[in-house]
Each structure stands twice: as C-alpha cells, then as structure tokens.
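Q: What would this complex look like in 3D?
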Amino acid sequence: MQKFYEYLDAHREQNLAELQRYLRQPSIAAQNIGMTEMAQLAQERLQARGFQTRLIPTKGYPVVYAELGDGPRTLLIYDHYDVQPPEPLELWETPAFEPTVREGNLYARGVADNKGDQMCRMQAIEAWLATLGPLPLKIKWVIEGEEEIGSPNLEAFVHENKDLLKADGCLWEFGTRNELDQFSLTLGLKGIAYFELRLRQMESDVHSGAAPVLQNPVWRLVWALNTLKSPDNRITLDGYWDHVRPPTPEELAWADSLPFDAEQAKAFLGVKEFVNNMDAKAANRAMFYDPTLTICGIDAGYIGEGSKTVLPKEARCKLDFRLVPNLTPEIVRDLLRKHLDRHGFSDIEIIGFSSEHWARTQPDALMVQAARRAGQAVYGYDPLLYPTSGGSGPMYPLSTMLNIPAVCAGIGYQGVRAHAPNEHIRLNDYWLGQKFIGELIKALAEI
Amino acid sequence: MQKFYEYLDAHREQNLAELQRYLRQPSIAAQNIGMTEMAQLAQERLQARGFQTRLIPTKGYPVVYAELGDGPRTLLIYDHYDVQPPEPLELWETPAFEPTVREGNLYARGVADNKGDQMCRMQAIEAWLATLGPLPLKIKWVIEGEEEIGSPNLEAFVHENKDLLKADGCLWEFGTRNELDQFSLTLGLKGIAYFELRLRQMESDVHSGAAPVLQNPVWRLVWALNTLKSPDNRITLDGYWDHVRPPTPEELAWADSLPFDAEQAKAFLGVKEFVNNMDAKAANRAMFYDPTLTICGIDAGYIGEGSKTVLPKEARCKLDFRLVPNLTPEIVRDLLRKHLDRHGFSDIEIIGFSSEHWARTQPDALMVQAARRAGQAVYGYDPLLYPTSGGSGPMYPLSTMLNIPAVCAGIGYQGVRAHAPNEHIRLNDYWLGQKFIGELIKALAEI
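A: Here is my prediction, written as structure tokens for the whole assembly.
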C-alpha cells in the first residue's frame, strides 16, 4: 500500500482544489436549488475515475448510480449529493458555498455532510487504480439527492433495484470520531419522523385590541406543544412509551464500555450542562438509546424590530421525532393525530416530511471486521464501535431490507457543525480518510 | 354651517388627492423608516392652514406641535404621524404605501390609524376658515411620532409642557363606529405592556441528533409561555388577578345597555365563534373590561420549505398585555420577572417595549357633551358612548395627568383592519368626519 499512500500525499493540492469545486455547487433539495447541476457533477467526477454511471429516476431527484471493479466481494457505498439549507446565512464566517480553508479546516455547506466523504472516496479509488491496478472487488455506488429531506423515494428505489444492489457490506455516508478524537465505527441510525404543525384561525392578522374575544392560534400551538413534552424534557405523547423497547442489559453495558468525555462533548456542543444535568454515563446512554422530540422551528405573527400589536392569523412549527426500537414513523404519526384530537386540537393540521426507520448492524458482521482491520492499519488502533448514531438516514432500506451489514466510517469529528453555520472538516481527517478507503477495499476483498 | 358643508362637498377631489399624498409617505417608527420626512410633511400641511408649528424634540422622534385660533375654550387634538409596520407585505392586495381607492374605500397603511383622521381634521379646519372666518376657540395640536411603538417619550413631553398643553377637552386620534355601523364616542383606553422574551441556549444551531442531551430553547419558551395562560384562555401569571379591579355593577350595566350584534362583530373579525364560545353579552363585556395577554409573534430555528433537522440556538416571542384598572405596566413587568424566576425560567430575558397606563373619561364631562351635540348634528342621532376601547395609547399623560377629558371620535368602522394588511377607511365616513369636526368646534365653543 506504500505507493497508494505516497500517491495520495503527492496529490493533496489538486485533490483539495477538486473538493472545493465540488462544494462550490449548491444542491439544496429542500429549496430545489442546484440539484440537476450537482447530479451531473457527481456523475462526471465518477466517470473521470472510470465508473460506469447512470441517473436512475425516482419520483423526486434522481439517484446517481455507479459501478466499477470486479471480484468475489461487493462493496455498496451510500452517499447523497444534496445538502442542508445554509440559513441562517449571516452566521457564516465565510459564505456557505465559497469553500474556505482556515487553520487546517475546510469550511463549506455539505463538506461534512456529505460531499467531503464522497470526494474522499473517489480520490482514494483514483489513487488505488493509479498505483495498485484494478479494484479487487466490485463497488456499487448509490448517491441519492434527497437525504436531507428524509429520502422519501429511496425505499421505492431499493424495492425496484433489489438485485442491482446486492452486496456483502455497505459503507455509510458518514462517520465521525468520538469526542476524545478516536476513530470510530457506528453500526446504526435512529429513525426519524418530521412534521409541520399548522393552525390557521383567521384570514388576516387582527389588531390585538380584539384579544378579549378571539382565539389566538399561537397560544393554541403553545398549549398543544406543551401536551407533547413536559418541562422535565420527557415526551408525553399519549401511548408513545408503549412502543419504546428499553435498551437491554447488553446494550447498556456496550454503551457504558465506551469512553466518553462529557466535558469535551459539552465543549463541542457549546453548552455548559447537559439537559436535566445528566451525568456522563446517563448522557452517553441517552445519545444511543433515547428517542427525542425536537422543535426545529416555530413561526407566527410579527417578530421584526420593536413592537407590533397584532393577533396573528396562524401559527406553525416543525417537529422532529428521532426513533429508537420499536417506534416507526407510521406509529408516531398515528399517535400524534390521535393525541392532538384527544386533547382538543383537531384544528391543528399535520404535514409529514421526512420519515425513516431505525437500523442497526450486528457487531460481528464481515463488513464490521473489514472496517476494523482498515482502521487499525491507518489509525494504529482498533476503532471504537458505537451501537448507533444520533442521526438518521435511509439505512433501513439499504441495509436492513437488503440484509447488507452497514458501517458508518468517515472523516467527521464532533466539531463539524453539520446542519449548522460554519460546517467544516479538518483536512487531516480527510487525508487519513482517503487511506482508510484503500485499506477498507483491501480488507473486504481479503477477509 | 351650510357654507362649511358645501365647501367640503365641493373639495372632495382635491382633498382625496391630498390625503393620498399624505399616505404615500412611509413613516414606520418601529423600523425608523421615513420619520423625518413625515414630520416635515405634517408641519407643512398644518402651516398651509395657517397653524403656527414647531418640532418639539424628545428622546425619540420629535412631536409636531401646532396652534391656531383664539377664544375662551381650548381644544387639544392628539394624533400621531407614525404607522404600524406593513408586514406581511404579500397579503396586501395593493401596496401598503400606494393609497388606492376600491369600491368606495381607500386602502393604505396608516389611513385608519391615524393619518386619515389627521388630514380629515386639517381639511375641516381649512373649510371653517374659508367659510366661517376665524376659529371660535384655540386649537392645540400634538402629533407625535411614536404612538405605534408605545409612546415611550410622551409622558416626559407632557411633564415638560404642562402649561403649554392646558385645554378644556381633548379629541383623541381615532374613533370608530360600532359593528351596527352606529357613530360612537369612546371614553377610554386600555393600558398596555409589551415585551419581547428571549432565550439563548447555545452559540450556534446544532444537528438535532444531539437532542437527547441538549436543552432546547424553543421547548423552554413553550413551557414558560404555558405557565402564563391556560388553555381556557385565562391569564395565569402569578399575582395578576390581585391587581385587577372587577367591573362595578354600574360598569357592567353600561356595557349591557349598549347594542351589540355578535354576528356582525364576528364577521368583521373573520371568525365563526368568539373564544370559549362566549355569548354576545359576555363578549361585549369582555371587550371593555377584560385584560388580555397576546402572543403577537414567535420565532425560532428553521421554518422555510421542507425539513431541516436542527436544534435552534435561541427562541424569542413578543407579548402584549392589555391593562384594565388597576393594572399598570410596572406591576406587570415586575410580576412577569418574578413569575418566570419562580417557575424556573430565570434564563429568559425580558425586553420592554411599549408601556401605557389605562385612562377613562367621565361621561358627564363638557367635552363629551360637545361631541354628542356634534354627532347629533352630523349623523342625526345621539352617538353611543363606549366606556373604553380595546386599544391603547397615551391617553393617561394627555388626559388623566393633565385633567383634560378626552373623547375618541373619528372616521373608523369595525372593518378597517388597523395594524393588519389591507388597512382601509370608507370614504363616506371620511366626508362625514370632516363635518363632525366643524360641528365639534362649534359645540365646544358654544356649550
């Protein structure tokens, strides 16, 4: 692998420039910005490495599908060419789509989630082909365009392409070091159910002098939300906990066995305390095994400068449920509708957006063994194994439904600010990540 | 008065054009837009009628002060040259600052509140001077620039100009027909205390996958708000009701004696039911005597298209308390701070904006008698007397503090949409309102 490593080290300048070009293209699925251009760019960059590519249409944005190599084993790679909206724009130190290097980090929307991993993987394969010859296994690559809006069409895509996607292991779109900066493999994702709640009371805003006789939709939304979660941060959606399987003693022991530096974790999150003053052990367990209900946004009436005495005509908010076994998006939606009706909020409309099932890979899977061996070779120690990420994604269709063990392994660290302003990666993680990809190809072919 | 009436009828076209010019000038105090230009325009229009004018500086926008006429009685007129922000702009059928006549109505921001009344009064005085000679009383005119942001400097202005402002009666900035379209006089205003609540948890938005261990400021704001008002719409701010003097039997009888068409009122407000399914009697009483707490706006996180899975770093909302005897802005602010602290929300910051005391005029005052006589002359019936408006304004310093009885009498009707998109007046009300001003000058001089 020496030549492979040397090739990568020698090409850093041009590889960084290529990555920056890749990041300069906005591709915001939620706002339908730059999606066609980005799908073309991804295809073009894959073709430049010899991949056979095609766009596979879905009911939404198409999937970029690519294949290269041959061998007894097949590696499926999952990435996505869409990114989160960059708002709030004013909080970016440099513009979201002008990739900028500062102090060894590269800042841009999508660099951590997940264009950095995509390009890292492409450049590693280029280095392999240039120094070690043909790939020793077949790579099948799925780059979808709707991950950040909840992959609404990926399950149908998988159903229609079951045979095409057969593989021995799946490399997931991201992977992140732990808060102690140790290279880690993550073996699962939480599910998600994302809704907008809307409540319209009147056709027009009204002077707040009429408040004695008018229902206020913002108050009603506040009261409805208050029934969903109590001030101790516990979800109180009727019937919810009946569907939550508590972690087993083995799962708790797994969590407790992992290193966790609470102070480092707080520093990365930018807080002084965890919610409810959780200690390190509780916080570590919660990250793996707790379902959550987050208000991602709320909006009503006038919120500009100074005062405007108005009674708003409508109110809305965005809610994100993160799901653990055995919650499903369908169960949550059903419970939410019934709960709102039961508590007198039938007038609140529920609009569904993202919806993903949770997924977990067994730690003894062949793909996990290969990833551990590759991590050992590049980082010098056996990577830590995490039972699940706090994030979500379409691992259920690509892994659980197809029976392909999936592993999250990538170039992230705890400070990347994915989904937030000033998203970035550390370039050092990127250079090491390229080498990990070569070692993973080798390990999965040989193991 | 025949010549006075005829002069007004003959000048409608040019008077409408002048009003439209007056409305075309934006003057949004909350956003510091067009304020200097508007103060100049108001002065210029007053000077055109022979008023001696000057700008009296305050700590905020200056007061336009004007005087004209002489006689044993003095009429103080109170108006304001600022208007509410026009947002949400997309809901205006024609732009807020492009005054447009449609079906006998004139649409523009500020036409009902209160540039229409200002111009109506100026044009009536012009007609008097042109047809009846010098004014039979002295008019003192205060046009301030901060009414829509709570008149923060008017009380100090009154303190510094007590002698200048001496008068026998005060004509308030607005007046509105009731929902049966009967011309009415209103003898008081509610107080107001307007606050912004802010809660910042982190320096930056965070991926909502970290929700198991993070406090969410939006949830905390929801829980805090929920402690302030219960789903039955009752204010639950600790200690609040100790300061509310219930209406006396006489006050309740006064309310009950007034005509009130609940269905008409609902139609004007754009609702099918009053809150809590109040009947007509309860709703009518509530409008006069109930204190209110309105969420005027709320904002946090992402609320654009589609989904963004983010845990917001901060949350904020705007609250408007309308005050009845004996609540004061100072009491409410103090109660609110203590309440939030007591309920565990010391981290919620309170920023104060508007603050006004309630005020009421006795129905037997000379000024009320004059306004009734003028109403009788123009409209053909004794105007209805309302104990108070649901709105607020600086009547306390100008009336209560100076012991000048104030009466709200003007050109509004229930459908004007003050503070909302498509604010308008009916031109017929405007033409009658001019005549009312002439009759009021006559009545107050003679009575």
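A: To summarize the key features: Chain B has two domains: 2-190+358-446, 191-244+291-356. Chain B touches chain A through 93 residues (CB under 8 Å).
Q: Very helpful, thank you.
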